[in-house]
Structure prediction request, 308 residues.
Amino acid sequence: MKGDLGALILGVLIANHAKAEEMAKTMLGFKDLFLLGFFLSIGLSGQLSLQTFIVGAMLTPLIFFKSALFFVLLTGFNLRARTSLLTTLNLTNYSEFGLIVAAVCVANGWIDNEWLIVISIALALSFVISAVLNTCSHWLYVEHRSIWRRLQRRERLADDQLLDLEGATIAIIGMGGVGTGAYDTMRGHHGKTVVGVDIDPLTVRNQQATGRNVLLGDPSDTDFWDRIQASHTLELVMLALPKVSTHLGIIDRLTEVSFSGQIAAIAKFPDEIEALKKAGVTTVFNIYTEAGAGFAAHVNDHKPAPNA
Prediction:
């Protein structure tokens, strides 16, 4: 059995193992390293010329036909325009598997080696285009939102229906460890006026199974706030996500929908606190500093009294 076929079969056999996901994450760096080595080996297989570069550059714009087909296909399955657009931009590049196929064709003498160089150039340029488009993907959607939304279907998927906050005045974004603790504390003080929001369906199901009022949604999506009934009564949004960049994205969306309530967020470092306050956050909680202070206070409250 050839080594590549053996590796494929072994991968299939261990795919359902309990440690498969952990192993995949651990080996991701090796995968990227090997992929880089493969591309370098392809690049060294022939000499770059002006002619091959021009042909590769001419093939690159054809990627937009693929993108248009993806957008039409995704909206045809009733996905929202934003979801379709962001997915399309992520797929706006030629697949590296095409380069593998071309390498096999060259090895068997089916195509000339120069075509492998042409395909490599087109692939590399398409990745550059994809990177640029993904950098400004949210801007592209927001700036031309009316155009994109006219291209989507009227029918909505189950996950895209209007969200009813049921009169909630406090929304906690991110129901991880910090968010769950914040939810339970605020629920104890404010009762049923607290709602949680998380982007992970599994997390939402687990939270709902414990009796917590948690909704599925992506608050960094402008359309998420449109899906909330127009008469929502939110007065406070608490951001309990691990990345400050995600917090800033959500704050931008709240600004776009003219949210007039208070915003609270967690941070890990002093520079994050400054960035969040400049963005309009009312209260910032440094989880490292406050956790240390809380730990010390807990120890002092529970340490045994000194002997008389």
Notes: The chain has two domains: 45-150, 165-302.
